[in-house]
Design goal:
By secondary structure, this protein is an alpha+beta fold. The protein is 17% helix and 23% strand. It is a lipid-anchor.
Amino acid sequence: MTGSTPSEMMNLRLILVSGKTKEFLFSPNDSAADIAKHVYDNWPMDWEEEQVSSPNILRLIYQGRFLHGNVTLGALKLPLGKSTVMHLVARETLPEPNSQGQRNREKTGESNCCVIL
């Protein structure tokens, strides 16, 4: 994308697993589900090999975490008028919010309780 991002919008640079990238403009009120639908409806020509069958399986990853469909860009406190990088992957389901942390606790024997001395 050339030029600057409008001050009331957010520029998302989406990266596929293949390494291909594309930039899209969104408003702070757009949710992860809105973004997935927009990208699906405006699938870039040079991403043809990665085309998916439905917007419902497109998932955004931001700072190493999957974004659930109802999360808005504004809720992430992304800067207006700036570019942000996210990964876009095809995945049927999302992991449970704390499943990784729970697995790690089980391996190390940690628990969520406190010891009061």
